[in-house]
C-alpha cells in the first residue's frame, strides 16, 4: 500500500481555476469510487471538501469539484480565493477495508 | 454536531507503547453507521491512515502498522482508543481521531502531538 501521488505544489492567481491531481493504481483510485479530498490550513485539522469522488458535503463551496478518470482523481477549485491557500490531500479506498492518503499538495494563491 | 477530542501522553520513550484516547461528544459512539478512525501526520509531512473500528468492535488496520496497532472502543465512556507498540522516533507525529461515513472523514479532533524520545 503506497501513498497516492500528488504534485508537491500548485499555484494560481485569484479568480483563476486550478486542478490538483491524485494518481494511484487500479487497486485504489481506479478500482473504487471512494475518493475524498481534504483541505488543511497550517496548525489545523483537515476539512472534508469532496467525498465519493465528486460529492460535496453541506457547507462546502460549489467552487470545489472532484472527478476521476482511470487511476487519477482530480480536485478543481474555480474562482480561486486567498482563503483557499492551504494543503490539500486526497484519500482513496485501497481494498481489504483499508484507506490510503496522498502525499499532499501545497496550494499557493499568488 | 459530533465533536472529537484526543488525549494522552505527549511524550513516549522509544520501545514503549503509545496510548491515546478519543472522547466523542454530541452523539453516541454506538449510534449511526460511522467508523471511528485514527490518522497521523508527522511534522511537515502528509497524512497516514492508521486504522479504524466499528461500534461492533470490528477493526481494520494499515498493513504497514498492523503488527503494532490496536484500536478499541468503550461504548460506556463514548470513547475509542489507539495503542501503538514498540514506538520509534518515526512514530513522532500529530495524531488525529476522525469519523464519518465510509472513508470520508467529516469530523476530526484537533490533533495531539506525540513525541517519541528518551
Distance between the termini of chain B: 39 Å
Backbone structural class of chain B: mainly beta
**Unreliable segments of 5+ consecutive residues of chain B:** none
Q: The biggest beta sheet of chain A, please?
A: 6 strands, mixed
Biggest β-sheet of chain B, characterized? 7 strands, mixed
Q: Which whole number gives the mean pLDDT of chain B?
A: 94
Topology readout:
The complex is a heterodimer of chains A (110) and B (118).
Chain A: E1 9-12, E2 18-23, E3 35-40, E4 47-50, E5 64-69, E6 72-77, E7 86-93, E8 99-101, E9 105-109
Parallel strand pairs in A: 1-9
Antiparallel strand pairs in A: 2-6, 3-4, 3-7, 5-6, 7-8, 7-9
Chain B: E1 3-7, E2 11-12, E3 18-25, E4 35-41, E5 48-53, E6 59-61, E7 69-74, E8 79-84, E9 93-100, E10 107-108, E11 112-116
Parallel strand pairs in B: 2-11
Antiparallel strand pairs in B: 1-3, 3-8, 4-5, 4-9, 5-6, 7-8, 9-10, 9-11
Key descriptive features of the protein:
heterodimer, A: about 110 residues, mainly beta, six-stranded mixed sheet, three-stranded antiparallel sheet, globular, B: about 120 residues
Describe the model.
Chain A has strands at residues 9-12, 18-23, 35-40, 47-50, 64-69, 72-77, 86-93, 99-101, 105-109. By secondary structure, chain A is an all-beta fold. Chain B has 118 residues and is mostly beta strands. Chain B is 0% helix and 49% strand. In chain B, the strands form two sheets. In chain B, strands 2, 4, 5, 6, 9, 10 and 11 form a seven-stranded mixed sheet that branches. A four-stranded antiparallel sheet of chain B has the order 1-3-8-7, with no helix packed on it. Chain A binds chain B through residues 1, 3, 34, 36, 38, 45-48, 51-52, 57, 89, 91-93, 96-104, and chain B through 39, 45-49, 60-64, 96, 98, 100-106, 108-111.
